[in-house]
Amino acid sequence: MGKYIIGPNMGKDGLFAGNKFPRDIITICQQLGYRPVYVHEGYSRKRPWEYLVDYVHVQSLEKGSDVIFIDQVSPRKSRAMVYSVLNKKHCNIIPLLEDVDPIRNDEMSGERKKLEMQQLNTAKYLIAQNSKMSDYLHTHGVKTPSVELTALDFLVPKIADEKYEHQGKWTICYGGNLSMVQSGFLNTLQMKDDDNLQFYVYGRGAAADNLPEHVIFKGSFSAEDCVGNLEGDWGLVWNGCSQNMDLNDSHSVYYNYVCPHKFSMYALCGMPVIVYSGGAMASFVKRKKCGITIDSLDQLPTKINAISEKEYMKYRHNILKVAKKMAKGEYTKAAIKEIEQNIRAPR
User: Fold this and answer.
1) Which of 41, 47, 180, 339 is the most buried (most CB within 10 A)?
2) CA 222 to CA 12: how far, in whole Å?
3) Cβ count near 324 (within 10 Å)
4) Beta-strand runs (E) in the chain
5) Largest alpha-carbon pair distance within the chain?
6) Could you write out the DSSP letters of every residue in 203-246?
7) Residue 68: what are its φ and ψ, rounded to 5°?
8) For 272, which DSSP code?
9) What is the pLDDT of residue 41?
């Protein structure tokens, strides 16, 4: 019986978290004795042989193996093939959920969403990102037991140090995909001179083209290089087009169920985080005392300016404790070890 990790073979040129998540998961699993098996996320019509190559790779796995699969819960041929082959081999399938497309994809039909979710019921255990994701799955027909990461690891050789000196205005960092659907809220931010706040924005996309006063575009770079390049006192975790939580905006709602990679990126840089009070990371932030929660972006001036430098340094100290675990892959390792114990436990 073997131990395998199935996922895409990604390069290191992705901006921010674009392709770092699967690379880190595969590296962490290798450290725990899992052998990597690579499959394409999608197939080109011009290269149909890719599917055959992936099929041969997955067929080579030993029967009855423990297999972690980086799953986006999306209607892809590669996903259907992986589940089909692993079930025929009676493997212990352990999907580690990178994304859950039925939550964020408004264009997917209800029947299609149900079909993709039902596939998870052929798994032995799930690794969800947090308890809110687990709850969503279990209220939408998924019966497979799950464990949670609680935060996403982000492997780097070093994190920011404790040194810090506050200068002038509070700066709020926002980094990631700057498409209008994900970061359109930036274009409507209303900051006044006496708010004592300014934003530093990093990434690529149309939202960077029309930024208001006090919102400064600072460029972009690879996820590998965030430590030492991102500037700011605070890291903002937000998504969508609105200053408030918009229940009609799937990109906004999606952050209620996932642990955003930008959260981890800010942590590595020593930035206390700002998250939506109803989002998946709010309870983590309160428990670890590593940032603040807000109901809308309009609250930022009042909330931030009410915090003393002494309080801020406590938040910074606590977020760096979280970062130390992320940089070593400890959240993922803990979830995998819990599942391994459950699988081997006598019944």
Assistant:
1) 339
2) 8
3) 12
4) 3-7, 35-38, 66-71, 92-97, 126-128, 146-148, 170-177, 197-204, 215-217, 234-236, 273-276, 291-294
5) 65
6) EESGGGGS--TTEEE----BGGG-TTT---SEEE---SS-SB--
7) -85, 130
8) P
9) 85
| Residue 229: both structure tokens together | 């390049």
Distance, in Å, from the CA atom of 134 to the CA atom of 57, rounded to the nearest integer, reads 30
- The whole-angstrom separation of Cα 158 and Cα 143 is 39
Structure tokens, 261: 């990679």
Q: For residue 288, give every residue at least 6 positions away whose Cβ sits within 8 Å of its Cβ, in sequence order, or none.
A: 318, 319, 321, 322
Look at residue 347 in the predicted model and tell me its pLDDT: 63
CATH domain 3-153+329-344 topology = Rossmann fold (3.40.50)
CA atoms 272, 275, 281, 287: torsion sign: positive
Decide whether 3-153+329-344 matches 170-327 in CATH topology. yes
The pLDDT of residue 59 is: 97
Half-sphere exposure of 145 (CA within 13 A, CB side): 8
- Given this model, what pLDDT does residue 6 score? 98
The b-or-e profile of 254-292 (16+ CB within 10 A means b, else e) is bbbbbbbbbbbbbbbbbbbbbbbeebbbbbbbeebebbb
DSSP-derived pairing of the beta strands 66-71 and 3-7: parallel
CATH architecture of the domain formed by 170-327: 3-Layer(aba) Sandwich (3.40)
Residue 145 and residue 125 in contact, taking contact as beta carbons nearer than 8 Å? yes
322, 328, 329, 334: CA torsion to nearest 10: -80
pLDDT at 246: 83
pLDDT tens digits, residue range 320-334?
Answer: 999 999 999 999 999
- Cα distance between the two ends of the chain: 20
Q: How far is CA 95 from CA 117, 122, 146, 334, in A?
A: 12, 10, 10, 15
Distances (CA, A) of 120 to 82, 92, 117, 143, 279: 12, 12, 6, 8, 24
For residue 128, what are the β-bridge partners?
A: 148
- SS3 assignment, position 89: coil
Low-confidence ranges of the chain (pLDDT < 70): 12-18, 347
